[in-house]
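Sample pair:
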Amino acid sequence: MLWERSTQFLLAVGALLSPSLGPSGARQEAVQEISGKRIAIVGGGSGGLGVLAALLTLPEEVRKEWTIDLFEQRRDVGGVWLPDENPPEWPQLPETPLYPALRTNTPHPTMTYPHFPFPPLTPLYPTHDYLQRYHAHFARHFNLTPYISLNTTVTSASYSHATKWSISLDSGEIEQRNGTTPEKYANRTVVVVGFSASGSDIAIQTVPLATKVYHSYTTNHNDPSGRQRVPIPGTHYRPRISHFDGQGIVFLDGSRIDTPGPTSVILGTGYRLTIPWLEPLTSVAEHTTERRELATNERYIRPLHRHVFAVDESLPVDALAFVGLPVWIANSPSDYAQGLFIAHQFASGRVVGRSKEDLWRVLEQEEEEVRRKGNDPFWIGHRFPTEGSAEDYQDALVARARTASPYPFPPHLANITTPYVESWRRRGRTNALLMRNGWLRAEQKGVAKGFLEGARTEDDWVEVMERVLEWEREHKDEEGLVKGYVVA
């Protein structure tokens, strides 16, 4: 299926385009000119839903001649929170990195789209199934589903000034595959590689099951946050893996472990930021400050304005936007802030409002500021490592859109003097680890549900967080930190 004449393409990592639809596999040579904008959003996770909802907050008379389509390759919305019904065995890769015992490491009120809280009695640090249901409910509540095409994969996307965007689509069936559970690692030697959120969580979850767990990672390697990596209780530290020699695993310091019995190596080493079907984006081994074409070094896509709009010489400045690239940030509120930034640029053309040369200077200044703080922007990529920087970024996006766009915002965001990110979200993110320890303690003591009762509104959930935090401060002083981990 070929989709053409798209004026905007939005990647909701989430791309925005304007097309004409034909039968699957067919190529349309003649395309009828379409009035208004045509916008393609690729991805139905947090980013795709956030930008779609933001676009629909624009006055109807502004977007009455727009065509908006969201393409999601899987059976439902939710992105990484939607589990594989039957995950594959290695070497096939799953549709999502989600693992069965995954739960959030930040309190859910800080993770929500503005003024759309989780339902009553949701655990403060919920398991993944709550997150998927939340996104599905968000799509239904705001009537996003008429714009969404499920089981539809974008297989290629290219741009020319003559035809604008052309996208090839595949609406094939989803293959069913065999499943797996954490119990798979019982009575095995397990080597977990990586110390970020996934690697740490997987190490925690395999300790009660495995015969022995080795945790392989580099201590404080280029960690821009400056956080110390405290070993996971019950694991045995090893540096990064050097190689496998047929009898065991050899590590970079020369140490080794023999693997005569059942052994599993689990990679929690993160993502390679590549989009092979997006023609304007090329992969490079290293970025250079001189390169002006859109490229990824698998950690950082550049040149982008404010981590959103592609500043490529071959593209109009708002032809291609990315949603959801920022890391170490609350995804749903950030995705919605980026969505507002994009929506009001599409509607007014004033939000970016600068020449490409000016946008380049802004990007270079931002990257130089990262260097000034002792980090490499090409390695840091889209991360926000310092406290408050992620919230400042969201505030700046929305503030720029509010002041530059002539169109109204939703009532709860209309006051230009009120920051987009509420102070309670900042406090919740800052205190997330202490609060999580309190929540685990409450679960162990069997009193967690008492904190949740009666919480329905956003204000109610703010009070729940404050009560858990205060309760943990009191108990930590009396009892110390929680011993062990709770795996839901």
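The CA atoms of residues 57 and 409 lie 7 Å apart.
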